[in-house]
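Justification of resources, computational component.

The compute hours requested in this renewal are based largely on the per-chain cost of generating structure records like the one below. Each record pairs the submitted sequence with a full structure-token output. That output is archived, and it is also reused by downstream analysis tasks.
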Amino acid sequence: MNPKDALHQFFGFESFRRSQAAIIERLLGGGHALVIMPTGAGKSLCYQIPALLPCDDEQPQRRAVTLVLSPLIALMKDQVDALRAKGIEATFINSSLSREERERRYSEVAEGRFRLLYVTPERFRKPEFLEVIARREVRLLAVDEAHCISEWGHDFRPDYSRLIEIRELLGQPTTIALTATATPDVQTDIVRQLGLQPDEIELFHEGIERPNLRLDVQEVWGDDEKLEHILAVRDVADAASVRADAGSVGHGSGIVYFTLIRTLERFSELLRQRRVPHVCYHGDLERNDRRRIQNEFMQGHCPLVLATPAFGMGIDKEDIRFVLHAEIPGSMEAWYQEIGRAGRDGLASDCLLLYDEADLTTQMEFIRWSNPDADFYHRVYDFVAHDHERATAFGLDWLRDQLHAKHKHDHRLETVLGMLERYGVIEGTWDDESLQLEVLSALPDELLDRDRLAIKLRRDQEKLLALVQLIRHEGDRMDFIREYFGQGRKLAMPIERP
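The structure output for this chain reads:
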């Protein structure tokens, strides 16, 4: 079976799109690839097709598996279900499974049952997983949402920074990293975090355009103007839905993003007064409520959701007709990822960013709180290491009190704990009720390097500035976006960090 045969047999397509065939050919030849491709352009096929092509000398107990690293637990089941419906041997292992189910899947993986295995990078902390995966030949490692690798990216996941170690554990397999958005600096950092040199990995940059998305920016002043824009975009989507349904009454699905929960709730009340049906989704809701609201939206029972950025992981609804940002996001990358949820069916969809200069203050505070200084790292470490008993008993709220960090949106403490875990200083769990932490080592120099921390803060501020510059850009905004994301550039040498 060749790649084109597999494409037709399993996926029903007659030919590959654009660079898919070239990417697959490189992987089959043992070459590494970094793929930047717009949402909906077929990134997954680039590693799924090679996974389906067996080697002539494979033995059942040692047959190759393609390992897919993904941060999206919410999406794994959908992806695996879709593959299995096509007769493809695929499974996932993550924390959503019961212990019994995880053990059953471990046993099946060890026996050589699956061609594709989806896991989060955090799974490599589990000794039982390491024991199982050591019994399989990992021919191909696929790193999805690869922007999460880079600490200079907008959605950094600490365990992604262990990819050099992970690749060594797996025997240095052929590797493909995939994302929809990555600036030149992030592209370079992805290569560095994989332990590769630029001449060892080929960049396939498909561009970031999605012609069916209509991008627009409107400067506004105050809630009244924002509300009118929300209603207008919704009305346009409704009208298009009615036309598409040949006269039947319907609503075009849409997401309105907010930065602050209190602003979301204020607009929810304004829409309720206008008798506009909607649901609200944010991180302060109970897990069951979040799941119920997401299901209502995904199944079309309520076509409009007001959401914070917490709404996004696992949202793969094809007919979202608009994504509107009622407050400015924190970066160009975050904005472009979020509008990528619109129009996945290829039909025209609107992406509107409402810019009120007063909203900048909120994002600037968020940036400051997500970049603790060296003194704050010292203070948190001292409490965790030397006042461990009380910290364990009283939890995060008590620790915030001691740190004088009680502002509702001040997340410096969570940021510090996450970074301490990433660097192997601590391990355990933490929430508002208690901390269950073990201190393993002293603070690393990287977290005490004031120059390095200052560079990270400045880069985050520059990302917000770039989005403001896009808003005020008088030329073609897509040209500005292409330049920002480095479309057409080659991979640079790894960046030397201070």
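The longest strand covers residues 137-143. The chain has three domains: 3-205, 213-362, 370-448.
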